[in-house]
């Protein structure tokens, strides 16, 4: 089974430019989560909303159109589906959709960006704390996998220019400390587990500065699995060859 996560930075654009079809054909996910869809389901073409062979589930922003949004697609029908954490302040931005499967929970999450001022950094950090508590609660019933755009690089190895970004959101000490908390709580960063010393492995590049051409990037997209599920994971990959967004897909194979 291959589970894939991808921040598409606009699902309609990815489809319109032909990347959607290429992604499905080349990456061949069994289950995949998309972040930053920037669309409600009714705004999507039928071949995207009802991708052949997949059940699809969407959580969209109710505060403004064309913002945030996540989607979960699966060839295996989930036992149940959850939309958000049950906290209106966070759920109204359409940031979480999850599925319960026989052996695990899968949470697909678009975590907030800490830019645009102190209030959004505060929102991001409070979202982080609420999410970890939520994931831990679900883990009482079965193992948890969570994936998505976490919007923070954990260690210096996870971005091209760590020193220049120490005072910038996405690499602030308090943001990175939360990932430490996640790991201390018994969740494993799957890519780093399999590739402990691999450098220049990034998932996001700034479009404005054409950073992808120079691989000046950040690893801010992750799969975390609860420790008890790690034995089932065979590999973790970054699909840097897949274009269509300022992020590339990532995957784990079970």
Short description:
The chain has 254 residues and is of the alpha+beta class. It has helices spanning 11-16, 19-27, 46-49, 88-91, 118-139, 173-184, 190-194, 211-214, and strands at 2-7, 31-35, 55-59, 70-74, 80-83, 96-100, 105-110, 144-149, 187-189, 204-205, 217-218, 221-226, 235-238, 250-253. The protein has a single domain (2-253), classed as Deoxyribonuclease I, Chain A.
Please describe the topology of this protein:
Elements: E1 2-7, H1 11-16, H2 19-27, E2 31-35, H3 46-49, E3 55-59, E4 70-74, E5 80-83, H4 88-91, E6 96-100, E7 105-110, H5 118-139, E8 144-149, H6 173-184, E9 187-189, H7 190-194, E10 204-205, H8 211-214, E11 217-218, E12 221-226, E13 235-238, E14 250-253
Helix pairs in contact: 5-6
Provide structural commentary.
With 254 residues, this protein is of the alpha+beta class. The chain has a single domain, classed as 4-Layer Sandwich (Deoxyribonuclease I, Chain A). Helices cover 26% and strands 25% of the residues. It has helices at residues 11-16, 19-27, 46-49, 88-91, 118-139, 173-184, 190-194, 211-214, and strands at residues 2-7, 31-35, 55-59, 70-74, 80-83, 96-100, 105-110, 144-149, 187-189, 204-205, 217-218, 221-226, 235-238, 250-253. Helix 5 packs parallel to helix 6 (173-184). The protein is globular and about 45 Å long.
């Amino acid at each position: 089974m291959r589970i894939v996560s991808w921040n598409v930075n606009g699902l309609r654009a990815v489809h319109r430019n032909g990347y959607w079809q290429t992604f499905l054909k080349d990456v061949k996910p069994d289950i995949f989560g998309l972040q930053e869809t920037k669309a409600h389901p009714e705004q999507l073409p039928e071949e995207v909303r009802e991708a052949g062979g997949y059940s699809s589930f969407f959580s969209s922003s109710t505060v403004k159109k064309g913002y945030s949004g996540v989607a979960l697609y699966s060839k295996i029908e989930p036992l149940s589906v959850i939309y958000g954490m049950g906290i209106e302040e966070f759920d109204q931005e359409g940031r979480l959709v999850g599925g319960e499967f026989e052996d695990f929970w899968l949470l697909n999450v678009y975590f907030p960006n800490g830019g645009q001022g102190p209030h959004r950094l505060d929102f991001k950090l409070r979202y982080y704390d609420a999410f970890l508590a939520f994931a831990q609660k679900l883990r009482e019933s079965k193992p948890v996998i969570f994936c998505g755009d976490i919007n923070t690089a954990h260690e210096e190895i996870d971005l091209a220019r760590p020193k220049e970004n120490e005072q910038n959101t996405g690499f602030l000490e308090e943001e990175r400390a939360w990932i430490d908390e996640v790991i201390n709580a018994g969740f494993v960063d799957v890519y780093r587990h399999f590739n402990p010393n691999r450098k220049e492995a990034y998932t996001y590049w700034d479009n404005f500065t054409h950073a992808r051409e120079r691989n000046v990037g950040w690893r801010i997209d992750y799969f975390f699995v609860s420790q008890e599920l790690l034995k089932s994971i065979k590999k973790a990959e970054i699909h840097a060859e897949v274009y269509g967004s300022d992020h590339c897909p990532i995957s784990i194979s079970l």
